[in-house]
Amino acid sequence: MKTYIIGHQKPDTDAVVAAMALEDLFKQEPSFGYENPEAVIVDPLNPETSFVFEKFGVEAPRQITAEAINEDDKIVLVDHNEESQHLNDLPVEQIAEIVDHHKPSFSFTQPIFLNFKAWGSTSTIVYFLMKREGVKPDQTLAGLMLAAILSDTVGYKSATTTDQDRKFGAELAELAGIADVEAFTLEIFKAKSDVSSLSDEEIVRNDYKVFGFARSTFIDQLETVEQAEILAEKKEALLAAMNKVKQAEDVELLFVAITDILQVNTKLLILGDDEAAVAEKAFGGQVKNNILNIGPKMSRKKEIAPAIEKALEK
Length: 314
Description:
With about 325 residues, the chain is of the alpha/beta class. The protein is about 40% helix and about 15% strand. α1 (about 15-30) runs parallel beside α3, α1 packs antiparallel against α4 and α9 (about 275-285) crosses α10 (about 300-314).
């Protein structure tokens, strides 16, 4: 029997690292009752996470499919709970626990353990659990967890950031021996911005979620320090890729949010008239040349998706 600790599809740094941190916690504290815990991923690492793992000399968890999960295995989900984000064909009846910081959206036929907190990253939650159990991450894992928190909170600039994220981030920085957190954050931002190895369609799918709003809505977010360059050089190619992805995913609306991490600004790339009407209703302003400037909105979870959902309800 094994316990698979699984993040969402197209995993970001937090989804991968939080799973690894939970594996470490479960191994050190057997009272959780999970046998042979293993953090796994369902898709390859993105450029930012690859950079972080290379920096700390860590190998990525192995990638699995649902066929690898036996009938007597348990599953712990991290950094997601929505069915659309699950590993394809995941046996949901084997889910024993969810550790997440997103809005709950699920239904199960049996009781499971839920650990949800409205903090900026799932790694913040896992560190809280570690502290509660008297478990301390080693220097490398502490560095990875700090990177995950900084990534998910956009260097503590996102609206999702809490005092808990800042407090635990400072503790993890001390454990990791990282004195200049600002410089470390900039390293992460630069890695996050590097999309040179990605095709246009891969950029559109780089960090997306499909929301079950009144109209099915695909929202991708690209966090970068090169917003102006991307829009100037790749806008038309990205619009063409967005059209392909919209058809492939069979969604009614598709948006790509291009967020400038340093300037604290997001511009929505608008595919068509339907998206334009919804975006203008959600955020105000006027779409010009397939772009809507929505200002200092950094968080898809707290600022972008809820506004679109509300616009679709009216």
